[in-house]
Amino acid sequence: MKIIVRNSITEISATSEATNFPASNLLNDSIIKGWKAANSGVTAATLTVKTRGITGGFGLVGIVAETVHVEVSGRSGISWQNVNWQNINWGGDAGTVAISEQLIRYSKDVEAQLWVDFAEIESPVEITITLLKSNTNPFWLKAGVLVVGQVFSFPDPKAGFEEGLDDKSIYRELSNGAEWSLDRPRLRTFSALIDMERDGYFYLFMRNIAKRFGRRPMMISLTDKMVNEWVLYGRFVGMPTGSHYHRTRSSLQVAFKEVV
Length: 260
Description:
2 domains, five-stranded antiparallel beta sheet, 260 residues
């Protein structure tokens, strides 16, 4: 499990933007607002992101594209994507990240999510994210929320994550017995019981993440021992709790719900 809480982005721009859907929308807390290319005829659009502080990776959710190309470089223009010592973990080919293969396009979903991490960099970084599609596809290139920053890593649950849906629709029973409803999004939820070292991980999670940032939205990469993987922009459902069952180890009970 990996978490990015605080955005280190200082500047963001796009080579193509629709009216009311600029690249700056990617810094909002709403995936629905997001960024969108100027029109459905745009087959390639590049997001350019500049950062400060500690940067160790990013998550991008609500992606509509066929392929995404990612490059990380210094402000001097030196590319790090092929430098072995930089240890960038692409989860796919070193130069191109194909969304449908690398992470995360769920069965029958139009939108995909992307997670990229690399060895922490404390100097300014420039990231380019190019979204691509063929000219025969009618959809618009778009993305919902981007979070770039320091990556906090924690153990994965041995028994995996429990996944569900929280239906935010409104239902009312009318006086004649009929039911009125207002359709609203169904939000993914994930929960798990995770065993971890108390000093090394449990208190890092409880103090540096939960206590410090509370229920603020964060970018989350969830993995389990079976190498299943999910990425979501979400917040805690309630606050996490723990059981100190051993002299040096604790179990963390945590649940997340995605943000729209």
